[in-house]
Amino acid sequence: MAKEKIKVGIIILNYNGYMDTIECLESLKNADFLDRKVSVFVIDNGSTNESVNEISYWMKKNLSEYLILSEEKKVSSPFILYAGTENLGFSGGNNIGIRLAQISGMDYVLLLNNDTVVEPGFLEPLLKIAKDDSSIGIVGSKIVDYYHRNHYILGGYLDLKKCSGYHFYDTEQANHTDITFTSGCIWLIPIQVFKQCGLMDSNYFLYVEDVDFCYDVIMHGYRITCTKDSVIYHKEGKSTEIKPTMTYYNTRNRLYFAHKMKEPFRRKILFYLYFGFTRIIKALLKPSIIPYVKKGIVDYRRKYYGKYE
Question: Which fold would CATH assign to domain 7-239?
Fold first, then answer.
């Protein structure tokens, strides 16, 4: 009797970025998945441009088999486009994909940023690590700057005194080691991890949700690691464009994460001292961010989460 193929659900979140998403899909179409059964779930997060039409057109033109959905249900297809009607943020949008992967019987979920391009053999090294050790909760790749190919990140660490995650830049020191943080740009996660940890916290909407999930995975007894043998290219400059709302989300969401994390209060005090001091310094250097800092604090205190309004 033939051995059942491992099923992997690759989740790509799109919001008004169909050109990047299509380039990512092109690279996945040409990837070598060996004998794996792979389904690519493109989750459109309520785009306000022609994203759904453009991605649908690409699928019709380039694929022999695909599905377009407007509801969460069990599916079996190599490419699926879910046409959402509302922007649910990074965590909320990815959660749709995770639920689709769960009900469709996937063994692993791979979260992948839409502004990435993958090497043909990127998946297998991730799967090998996860398959060989059931204690692994997340495996990350080597993420090379799309525009500057001599720069990359590989792994990282959580700094709970700052309630933030930091990358290891241009070094392979974290290769195949235990780490506490890796970029949410690409995560391979065994499906049972979601059964233990739950989905991503949709309260964040944007930013810090990757810190929260890595922390939660570790608190549930899983390990996080990464491998240089899996390589993707990330359009880092586009995704890190500084916007005023980044200040809002980082203020509100780091306070929310500090409240959530299961650490002694004396350790949280270090964060509050650091955070208060740095907000003052940043406000003095750039007074234009003051309204966003104030709104972030106010919304945290009144427990308003979700999208910036």
Answer: Spore Coat Polysaccharide Biosynthesis Protein SpsA; Chain A (3.90.550)
